[in-house]
Amino acid sequence: MYRARLETPGGYYHVGTRGNSKAPIYLTDDDRLNFVRLLAVVARRHGWSVHAYCLMTNHYHLILQLERGGLSRGMCELNGRYALGFNDRHGRSNHVFGRRFWDESIENDGHYFEACRYVVLNPVRAGVERQVDRWPWSSYRATVGLDLPPAFLVVGDVLRRFGTTPEAARDAYIRHVSEGLVQRQPPDGPAST
């Protein structure tokens, strides 16, 4: 039996979904581009502000703030529409995603900072990339000014938490993420492959 989702307007959430039987949900970069485009549509429609994201091979992570609710409806739309397109592009049928999406409410600033860091460090911790700034499928590059941010990514909101000037905030964010490289992955957290 599934538990009811608590959706607090203005609340922050760490959410994600894994492929069915841990199978890949992205086979090509075009799959990832399609997901990002769809995320932009869903975020706008449901009033999500995305603070961090990372697309791995068999799962993804989002840190988002809800404007008015819409977490379950938005995740259903995001995963459902993506799965239909994925199956069509690859001549497949059946489930792309395994269980329902998981979510964790972010209750304080410390939790927010750690969750944002955890998300962007996923490729490094999983061993698929050696440097966080080289993975093109996360919010890190846009947050530090290496790429233009997608419309759904609220880089300014993220950086304001790290400093009063753009340069100081970016430097503090980079330091914060780098400090996470020496920490072990939480044993109860989602796997990062």
Count of folded domains: 1
Q: Determine the fraction of residues in helical runs and give it as a percent range.
A: 40-55%
Low-confidence stretches: 185-193
**Tally of DSSP helical segments:** 6
Widest sheet: strand ordering: 2-3-1-4
Question: Would you tell me the overall average pLDDT?
Answer: 92
Corresponding CATH superfamily: Transposase IS200-like
Which CATH-level-2 architecture?
2-Layer Sandwich
- CATH top level class name: Alpha Beta
Q: What is the element string, with H for helices and E for strands?
A: EHEEHEHHHH
Give a count of the beta strands, DSSP E runs of length 2 or more. 4
- Estimated structural class: alpha+beta
Shape call:
globular
First-residue to last-residue Cα separation: 27 Å
> How would a textbook summarize the main sheet?
4 strands, antiparallel
What amount of the residues lies in strands? 5-15%
Report the C-alpha radius of gyration, rounded: 16 Å
Task: Give me the CATH fold name.
Answer: Alpha-Beta Plaits
The gist of it:
By secondary structure, the protein is an alpha+beta fold. The protein has 6 helices and 4 strands. β2 and β3 form a beta hairpin.
Comma- or semicolon-separated keywords:
single chain; 193 residues; alpha+beta; Alpha-Beta Plaits; 4-stranded antiparallel β-sheet; 6 helices; 15% strand; globular; disordered C terminus
Topology:
Layout lengths: L11 E7 L10 H18 L1 E8 L3 E8 L4 H20 L11 E5 L2 H17 L14 H4 L11 H6 L5 H14 L14
Antiparallel strand pairs: 1-3, 1-4, 2-3
Task: Please tell me about this protein's structure.
With 193 residues, the protein is an alpha+beta fold. Helices cover 41% and strands 15% of the residues. The longest helix has 20 residues. The C terminus is likely disordered.
